[in-house]
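Bit of a strange request maybe. I'm writing a small parser for structure token strings and I need a real example to test against, not something I typed by hand. Could someone generate the tokens for this chain?
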Amino acid sequence: MRDARAFYDYVIIDTPPVVPLVDCRLLGRLVDGFIVVVAAHKTPRKLVAEALNLLDAVKVIGVVFNGDDRPLAAHYGYYGYSQPSGSRSSWWQRLLSVFSA
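Reply from user aminoacidic:
Good idea to test on real output. This should exercise your parser:
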């Protein structure tokens, strides 16, 4: 990792899934952040929630929702989705609600 950081601006490591294997969590000490990739229509919401709970929330810099075939217009406004005021859910629960059917 040290050598890769010395030569490159960005180093991306493709790891196995977070929940069933510990590899990603062990690398957490060595990386600046995580981009979580979620397969639409394949990854159960409970599994996504568990993965996000296992990772350091400060290091989760993004979530890629891959393979969704629904049009975005029904889910997003001009500047993004709006969260009702007073909502006390965690950030990942709000994220998952955007993708709910």
